Amino acid sequence: MALPLKYNLRNLVVRKSSTLTTAFTIGLTVGVYLMVMALAQGIDLTLATSGEPLNLIVLREGSTAELNSSISQENLRDIQYLDGVARESDKPLAAPELITLVYKARKGMSQGSNIQIRGIGPMSTKLRSGFLVTAGRTFQPGLAEAIVSRRISERFQGMGIGDKFRVQTTDFTIVGLFDSGGKAFESETWVDVNALASATKRESFSSVLLRVKDAASLDALSKRITDDQRLHLKALPEKRFYEEQQGAASGLLKALAVFIGFIMAIGAAFAGMNAMYAAVAKRTKEIGTLRVLGFKRRSILIAFVLESLAISILGALIGILLSLPLNFVSTGTANFVTFSEIAFNFRVTPPLMLYAIIFGSIIGLLGSLLPSIRAARFKIVDALRSS
Amino acid sequence: MKYSKLILKNILRNKRRTLLTISSLVVSLFLIITLATILTEMESGSEKSNPLRLVTRHKVSLAFTLPVSHRQKIAAVPGVKNVMTFSWFGGIYIDEKNFFANFAVDADRLREIMSELQMSEPEWQAFINDKQGAIVGAKLVKLYGFKPGQRITLKSPIYNQTVEFNIRGVCTGGDEKTMFFHHDYLNDMLPDTLWAKNQVSTLSILAKSPDDVPKISEAIDSFFINTDAPTKTETESEFAASFQAMYGGVKQFMYGIIAAISFSLLLVMGNTMAMTVRERTKEVGTLKALGFQRGTIGMLFVGEALLVAMIGAVIGVGGTMLLYRSIDFSLFIPIVQSFVPTTATLASALIISILVGLASVVYSAYRISGMTIAEALRSTE
């Protein structure tokens, strides 16, 4: 027969200071793991949501990022009229774009990071959903004007409306701020592609973004461009292009989260063991009484394991509560694929919270197993005789 | 100190509890030292740099290159002892997973400008005389088994080139996960139409004296200011700092994590000490009845916590130090050059554990030593 759950819960309340400190120790362990994972998750989700399902990005063969890619005017002519490229009133939905970087200092610091400057054409915003100018106005084609993502404007010096930044010998004036629904573009600054080309004296583009007619054309067109021996280009779904950057940006952080979580879990399990051993020792007589009343060894074992499990789930909930406010925190770090700043929000997602509860329960189980076995093994006579 | 024997006996009373507490301390200290070492290694570039060295890059960002002709003009600037080109090649050895830094440099000038690189005379000569020659850091030898005479192929997505090199030497000192080769060799094989032809990422400058350093950067930057390729010249440590700043919020975040781990350590120790103190309430009554003063009783508990913390610190700090001295973890972590905890890190870990030990017991010791004899003896704990 199992011991009523009430027995365990009441016991937890009786030794509440020990229960709470143990729960907090587990909470901090789970919380720290969650926070590092939330950082990695923030990067991953930003990149995962950046590509549009029907967009194809074309780069130079062998290049790993837009920054080290180059596509000539002839290439552009060749690919934009290919079968499968969607059209809008007879014009192909193709956006040749140009990428460069500008080093800017962060707010309140003398050092900073590279900011990605993207030269865009008239089709570019049509190929991206979620784009919205939130302050000021958009740039005028042909002029040296720029719009800056709100996040970058908040994080870097001299990137507000009215400020200027220099590319080679051209000064670009910032005329507006934009949002793009949490995508990677929220780490960018957008200017007119022709203005940027003349500022950087480049005749080629970095990439061409194509909208395809349907899902079937996506693969067909990608294969058609990549396999064409004369073009020396590669085309891949935009979604995949951004997803492939995830590992480089967040892989180390995830490894770090697992490492920190693992080591802290060992520490927390030791602490939990201490608390459970103390609880068992204090209740020796009680355990003897329960056995006399007819409760089996197994019931005692389960009771103590459940008690510890309750503490650890409470701990996991504390950890989740501690990490939840991070959802409102935005930060930025280096994306070494683009060699520039990626700004994002920490993301504590429901699956992460579920992991946290599982993780906390494992700590509780590890910490309670030995003390519970000890409790179950007491001989009735010894237990009753103990002081 | 006459109570040290009593403190020791008290610690040994519940051996399992002491052992668990010490183990918890040891793993937490290991974690704190490891994270702090990652942080210091991320910041180390600016500390290990040579104060006589400057780096010139394009003013806008590293995405823009400088013409190789800047080298001759910079060499003529007063105070410049030597200058060489220094270009990030981004070459991949077989697979993207094998990431290591590889730079195109002026081989004949490398030795003077990066004097931290140590290599035998014949190796230097072999490298300088072979246009296809390359030298690799000692850690690359450990990782990939490179050996002198071997021919290796690197593929660079940035330059869109696949290039073969002859390994001519193995150098120690500096970042030992780096490879250097001749810029001329790379430049000659680039097609005339490629943006990278006759272009370099940065120029590395050695100043004659520390007084020349600020004058040189001023002179170079004002010389090129109205050209197609304006420059920004910084000391090597400033240049390194500008790279480290790219990590942005992640660094402060890591400090927060270390603080959270320390706090959880405090909870662990605090809970243990609270249990220990509470269990001995009756005993405290007896001690008081025997005439022990409040201060003495309090000190017994503080001494006990400190001793546990110190044992944990010695094992945790010492063990971690030994571990990282005997196994070179920098071979497995791509972003760091070496992985040796600094003295400051080890000392901080030691201080953290002692502070945690103290803080964990102060309240319990204060409360229990303040009880009256009757209260303490009446306790049911």
Q: Which structural traits does this protein have?
A:
heterodimer; A: 387 residues; alpha+beta; 2 domains; ten-stranded mixed sheet; 12 helices; 14 strands; 21% strand; elongated; B: 381 residues; two-stranded antiparallel sheet; 14 helices
Overview of the structural elements:
The complex is a heterodimer of chains A (387) and B (381). Chain A is of the alpha+beta class and 387 residues long. Chain A contains twelve helices and 14 strands. In chain A, the strands form three sheets. In chain A, strands 1, 4, 5, 6, 7, 8, 9, 10, 11 and 12 form a ten-stranded mixed beta sheet that branches. A two-stranded antiparallel ribbon of chain A has the order 2-3. Chain A has a two-stranded antiparallel sheet with strand order 13-14. Chain A is elongated and about 95 Å long. A ten-stranded mixed beta sheet of chain B has the order 4-7-8-6-9-5-3-11-1-12. In chain B, helix 2 crosses helix 9 (236-244), helix 2 (15-48) packs antiparallel against helix 10 and helix 12 (294-326) runs antiparallel to helix 13 (343-369). Chain B is built from 14 helices and twelve strands. With 381 residues, chain B is of the alpha+beta class. Chain B has two domains: 4-45 and 248-378, no CATH class; 60-229, no CATH class. The radius of gyration of chain B is 30 Å and the shape is elongated. At the A-B interface, helix 2, strand 4, strand 5, helix 8 and strand 13 of A face helix 2, helix 9 and helix 10 of B.
Arithmetic mean pLDDT of chain B: 92
Shape of chain B: elongated
**N→C terminal distance of chain A:** 27 Å
Order of helices and strands of chain A: HHEHEEEEEEHEEEHEHEHHHHEEHH
Measured by DSSP, the beta-strand proportion of chain A falls in 15-25%
Number of domains of chain B: 2
**Count, helices of chain B:** 14
Oligomer: heterodimer
Sequence-ordered SSE layout with sheet pairings:
The complex is a heterodimer of chains A (about 375) and B (about 375).
Chain A: H1 5-14, H2 16-48, E1 55-60, H3 73-80, E2 87-88, E3 91-92, E4 94-105, E5 112-120, E6 132-136, E7 145-149, H4 150-155, E8 164-167, E9 170-179, E10 188-192, H5 193-200, E11 207-211, H6 215-227, E12 233-237, H7 238-243, H8 246-282, H9 284-292, H10 297-323, E13 330-335, E14 340-345, H11 350-377, H12 380-385
Parallel strand pairs in A: 5-10, 7-9
Antiparallel strand pairs in A: 1-11, 1-12, 2-3, 4-5, 4-11, 6-9, 7-10, 8-9, 13-14
Helix pairs in contact in A: 1-10, 2-8, 2-10, 2-11, 8-11, 10-11
Chain B: H1 4-13, H2 15-48, E1 53-58, E2 66-67, H3 70-75, E3 80-88, E4 92-93, E5 101-105, H4 107-113, H5 121-129, E6 133-137, H6 138-144, E7 151-156, E8 161-171, E9 178-182, H7 183-189, E10 199-200, E11 202-207, H8 212-224, E12 231-235, H9 236-244, H10 249-279, H11 281-289, H12 294-326, H13 343-369, H14 373-378
Parallel strand pairs in B: 5-9, 6-8
Antiparallel strand pairs in B: 1-11, 1-12, 2-10, 3-5, 3-11, 4-7, 6-9, 7-8
